[in-house]
TrEMBL record:
This is LysR family transcriptional regulator. The keyword Transcription applies. Transmembrane segments: none annotated. It holds the Pfam family LysR_substrate. InterPro entries: HTH-type_LysR_regulators, LysR_HTH_N, LysR_subst-bd, WH-like_DNA-bd_sf, WH_DNA-bd_sf. It comes from Anaerostipes butyraticus.
Amino acid sequence: MTLLTYQVFKTIAEAGSFQKAADRLGLTPSAISHTISSMENELGFSVLTRSKSGVSLTNYGEKLLPYVNGVLNSDESLQQMIADLNGLKQGKVKIGVFSSVCTSWLPEILHSFRRKYEKIEMEVFQGTYEDVFLWMKRGVVDLGFLSVSSAKDIPIVPLYRDPLLCVLPKGAKKESPGESIGIEEMKHHQFVTQRDSTDADIQNFLKENSLRVQSNYHVVDDLSTVALVEKGFGICLMPELVMRDIPYDVDCYLTEPRASRIIGLAVMNPEFMAPAVRTMYNHIIKNYQEEEFRN
């Protein structure tokens, strides 16, 4: 099989159709179909399931995809190393981010990086902690922003300590915002909660403090959560970085005991990064790591 075969397979997996893959790669649908047929004949099993609604991966295809991504990423690393040896800073970096990093940090990171390295292309994938973790495991992204607790077995460099806040409807607590709120007081409130994969650090705080929250409202995104709090449907826990971008009129209090998430930059293999990836990795750590985490 050739690199083109792997690229065709990966593109179909991402696009979900032969036609879209053909458009992205500048090939005809028949060429795409022929490439996959030849691949399946050589492998001895099917990698795609065709249906009226589109194309999806078979179980074999799902297992094969991370290895295909690995081959393509290795080829990209080789091309970047050759360019690097020739004195050209070029290549491509794929970055996985969760929402608050995407809105608060990423625009400045991309802008400052592009000013220095115009020839390095950047691609951004936004999702939850779980999304970023899986993208890294499958080779979809080169670098990923995660909290230290959600990185699991992926090596991660801490960058920033982000305090957790308890968010209440405006005026629901007599003390001024900026003061603290304790566990016992939180227990008397209804909660608006998010699914576990959305913010593992909040889930950890609840478990560590035996906070068995009662909630009729289970949402996914931060804006929806705080919007429900503003209208009096409950309280929630949110990282401070999230609340910088929230337009709703609510009160925020530090938790007692104090808690925080630590945001870091993760990479699957710190010892082996393509030149463009390492350049971005070093740029972020040099310019955006807080003093307390510097060696």
